[in-house]
Amino acid sequence: FVISMCLPCHHILKLRQIYNIPLHNPELYAERWTRQYYAKVCRVIPTNDINQISDGNEIQNVNVVTVQNKKKIPNAHEKYRSAHVEAKRLASLASEATGKQFEQRLMILKYIANAWE
What we know:
Layout: H1 2-5, H2 10-18, H3 35-41, E1 50-54, E2 59-63, H4 76-96, H5 99-116
Helix pairs in contact: 4-5
């Protein structure tokens, strides 16, 4: 991790925490992980303000726009997994009940299944 990402591994951070050494040390991180580097190389800065940029002779107004990713539509397998998690939760809650309460919960689940068919 240290070699590939130029970031300290969790072992180094844990030892620094144990010995009460500040976790942030610029020598532990590559320059690319600093805010200064990000501000210098990033073309889209997350702000909606109008900034002024000087090219030496004149000042130009630049409109900075934040780009938002479109929300991905889940495929059938992802929808099934999400529904399965909730169905297991309902089954667990239903099975925790006893007697009349269990029968009522089971009837509600059957009603939902019939309504969706």
